[in-house]
Amino acid sequence: MQRSVFYKLFAMMFLEFFIWGAWLPLIFGYLPDLKFNAFQQSLILNAFPAAAILAMFFSNQFADRYFAAEKFLAVSHLIGGLSILGLAWVTDFWSFFALMLVHCVFYVPTISITNSIAFASMKDAQTEFGIVRMGGTIGWIAAAWPPVFILVDWAKVSEKGATGLKDWLDAVFASGLTGKALQDATSWTYVVAGIASLLLAVLSLGLPHTPPKPAAAGDDASAWMKSIKLLAQPFVLVLWLVTFVDSFVHNCFFSWTGRFLVKAVNIPGNWVTPVMSIGQIAEILTMAVLGTCLKHLGWRMTMMIGILGHAARFAIFAFFGTPEYASLVVAVNILHGICYAFFFATVYIFVDEFLPKDVRTSAQGLFNLMILGLGALVANFVCPVLFDHYTNAETQVVDFRGLFLVPCGAAVIATIILALCFHPPKAEVNLTPEEEEDAWKTPTV
Question: Of 220, 245, 343, 365, which one is least surrounded by beta carbons within 10 A?
Fold first, then answer.
């Protein structure tokens, strides 16, 4: 890949995930501050997975068949950026929900589209994608950490008169803004996300040209329908279903871990976000070596390690979730980066390498339907129910061991299914375009 192209793709990924990371970590506390009830909050939060489902049938089709991907990306981020920018100034439910829904409908498809643009510009996706996608991880971290220091009541920090660095950090993390001050300051995260989205809209016009690929004569004109038909191949169907399980397990981490760290491990509340971000730092390193791992371990083993990382982390949470093992509980979060890169990023590379190129975006969207859509949607509804089930109604004590063994067991089962049933075709080199199109149709046993 040319160096100039690499820098453009890296910047594209940086801004793509900076946008998401700018608003997501703080919205869980922001919505209650706006006095939205639980049902209203659920509707707003589920706009994202709902958009992933909708994208499968509409947006990805347009990006594959009718519009150059980089132009579609520019338009999507222009509309999505303006809508999330508006969230900084609205406080009533219907306006907030409508703007969030518009933003998600236009933003979520761009995750598949940025993957498609990147893959179309690569000569060796197994080696190059991890490095390019690392820009997204850095973008997420760049957006998620500054608010920890920005949303601070500095008057309180000064009053505590901290001397050493640790005392000063403790004072900063313990002096967060509250009430109306916090609400006003948090609203600026939507301004930041909106500006980043508009910036990416401009940058998109300079990205490598990725033209649409109209259906060939006699072929299915509907890109999303052709991508769904790929599920008739056993190896695609198995990976698709395992992806759903892994997405559900992945979202269990975000739903329960914050409360677990505080209630069971006695981690101070002001340190929860930094602890949960350890995995994202590890993700940077994992993305850098992903290509080497794929070449040495192969598709199946790499993905299995990614899923088993979830099982190992939840097992540590279940059996060592006490204050005396706090260091182990904190350290095991490093597996988060390995889980994401070794499974989700590997799935994206696999899809581009094995499935037809003329439905590249829709094929990516087929799996994002599980990663960002159904998996997250089911988790948003099931996780609160499971948490209540393992909470003693009288004492309010949570049986975290039983709770975390649920996703741990699901991850183990998914790994076994992948090991026994996932048999992709062997990759061939120097294929003609016609042979490359047909290669995925004959899986090996």
Answer: 220
Mean local confidence (pLDDT), 306-331: 95
Q: What is the pLDDT of residue 407?
A: 96
Contacts of 357 (CB under 8 A, 6+ apart): 213, 436, 437
Tell me: the pLDDT tens digits for 85-115? 999 999 999 999 999 999 999 999 898 889 8
Q: What is the separation, in whole angstroms, between the first and last Cα of the chain?
A: 34
**Amino acid identity at 230:** L
CA distance 314 to 321: 10
Q: Tell me the two tokens of residue 124.
A: 């060796």
Contacts 24+ apart (CB under 8 A), 140-143: 140/17, 140/18, 140/20, 140/21, 140/280, 141/21, 141/277, 141/280, 141/281, 141/284, 142/14, 142/18, 142/21, 143/17, 143/18, 143/19, 143/20, 143/21, 143/22, 143/192, 143/193, 143/196
Give whole-number Cα distances, 340 to 114, 291, 349, in Å. 17, 14, 13
Whether residue 442 has pLDDT greater than 60: no
Residue 440: its pLDDT value, please? 45
Share of the chain above pLDDT 70, in %: 88
* Cβ neighbours of residue 136 closer than 8 Å, sequence gap 6 or more: 13, 14, 16, 17
What are the residues whose beta carbons fall under 8 Å from the beta carbon of 147, sequence distance 6 or more? 25, 26, 186, 189
Asked whether 405 and 385 are in contact (CB, 8 A), the reply is no
Q: Which residues pair with 391 in a beta bridge?
A: 398
- pLDDT tens string 219-259: 555 666 777 888 888 999 999 999 999 999 998 988 888 88
Residue with tokens 């062997």: 426
Q: How confident is the model at residue 429 (pLDDT cuts 50, 70, 90)?
A: very low
Q: Map residue 161 onto helix, strand or coil.
A: coil
Q: Whose CA is closest to 21, among 144, 180, 146?
A: 144
**Nearest one of 15, 1, 159 to 77, comparing CA atoms:** 15
